[in-house]
Amino acid sequence: MKEKIESYKAELQSAMAKSKQELEDFRLKFISKKGVISELFDEFKKVPNEQKREFGALLNEFKEEAQAKFNSLIEAVNNQSADEVVGLDLTLPPVPSAGSIHPLTQVKNRIIQIFERQGFNVSDGPEIEDDFHNFTALNFPENHPAREMQDTYFIEKDPDILLRTHTSNVQTRLMEKGKPPFRSIMPGRVYRNEAISARAHCFFNQVEGLYVDKEVSFKDLKQTLYHFAKEFFGPETKIRFRPSYFPFTEPSAEIDISCFICKGDGCKICKYSGWVEIGGAGMVDPNVLTSCGIDPKEYSGFAFGMGIERIAMLKYQIDDIRLFSENDIRFLKQF
Ligand code: PHE
Predict the structure, then answer these.
(1) What is the mean pLDDT of the chain?
(2) Dihedrals φ, ψ of 266, to 5°?
(3) Got the DSSP string for 206-271?
(4) Residue 86's pLDDT is what?
(5) Which of 30, 187, 240, 260 is least surrounded by CB atoms within 10 angstroms?
(6) Is the bond into 247 cis (omega within 30 degrees of 0)?
(7) pLDDT in tens, 149-193
(8) 190 CA closest ligand 1 atom index
(9) How confident is the model at residue 91 (pLDDT cuts 50, 70, 90)?
(10) Separation between Cα atoms, residue 256 and residue 241, nearest integer Å
(11) Interior/surface letters 62-81, b for 16+ CB within 10 angstroms, e for the rest
């Protein structure tokens, strides 16, 4: 029996466990009810009385050793499974949550959705534009001060190539290419050489709309924008038109909506007037139709334009336009 214990002891000492399975194998072999220790205790019963003291001590020592070894193997296996997850740097910040749709894109998509339901499709055009499509075709005479209204970034001179100052260039391109009727909106980025501040940026987004067909009148314009305002800002929204001037529309108007924050009572957002401006609009000037090869005696149309940042700032009460292009996720994740 002594040899048996010695040989099991040697086996015990060299035993290793790399996995939970090997740990379990060890337990079954040495510690379980059918294991080596139980077997030795059974044998111990048959040991002559005079040897019981010696063997008993040996056996108890072996049992304790086996238990201690088992405990150390458990620890080894547990530590190892932590080490095994290689390449995991626990000092890194948590995995960022999924991104969100940029507030400007959300507002743009909502605007598109509202106009699409009124039968408008979406058109696109170049951001780098020639003078004709950005100005001349839109009835901006050469050297007319109206060109000064839109501080332009010129890329080349003679012939002038510039960054479009409004998405009206898409209107001219659409009309010169196709045949009426046109019922389209043009969302896109535009550029103006303005000092960057909380209120103004050198690039921003507009959505313009154009509707040209037989017998289109100012009342169609009013109803279209009234529907938009109610859908976007809420069913109680009122709309008003103030006379204004744009070279490409006649008559022209600024579009105001009743302040949806104070419901017209007067607050900071509407500067206590009860109204906020959302864009410009008017009937397409006959000169513009002619420039684009459309007979103004046969067709008439309306056009409107709004700043997407401005609409988003009103809707979400954002007081700094620069936030839209700073990519600060603390700002972006609120939408
Ligand atoms: N293009 C004008 C602007 O950028 C907006 C506008 C479009 C006004 C259509 C009237 C009609 O300021």
Answers:
(1) 91
(2) 110, 120
(3) EEEEEEEETT--HHHHHHHHHHHHHHHH-TT--EEEEEEEETTEEEEEEEEEE-TTTTTS--TTTT
(4) 65
(5) 240
(6) no
(7) 678 999 998 888 999 999 999 999 999 999 999 999 999 999 999
(8) 4
(9) confident
(10) 6
(11) bbeebeebbeebeeebeeee
Q: Measure the CA–CA gap between 319 and 313, rounded to whole angstroms.
A: 7
Q: Which atom of ligand 1 is nearest to the CA of 168?
A: 1
Q: Quick one: which H or E segment has residue 156?
A: strand 154-156
Interstrand relation of 161-163 and 128-130 (parallel, antiparallel or unpaired): antiparallel
Position 269 confidence tier, pLDDT thresholds 50, 70, 90: confident
- Give distance in angstroms: CA of 236 to centre of ligand 1: 26
Residues 6+ apart with CB under 8 A from 296: 286, 289, 290
Q: Given a cut of 90, is residue 260 above it in pLDDT?
A: no
For the chain, the straight-line distance linking the first and the last C-alpha, in angstroms and rounded, comes to 78
> Which residues form ligand 1's pocket by a CB distance below 6 Å?
166, 168, 208, 246, 249, 280-282, 303-305
236: left (phi over 0), alpha (psi -120 to 50) or beta: alpha
| DSSP 8-state secondary structure symbol assigned to residue 28 | I
CA–CA distance, 248 with 164 (Å, rounded to integer): 15
- Alpha-carbon gap, residue 50 to 103, rounded angstroms: 91
Torsion-angle region of residue 324: left (phi > 0), alpha (psi -120 to 50) or beta? alpha
Q: Which amino acid is at 144?
A: H
In angstroms, rounded to a whole number, what is the distance separating the alpha carbons of residues 114 and 117?
Answer: 5
Provide the CA 87 distance to its chain's centre, in angstroms. 30
In this structure, which residue's CA is closest to atom 4 in ligand 1?
Answer: 166
Residue type, 85: V
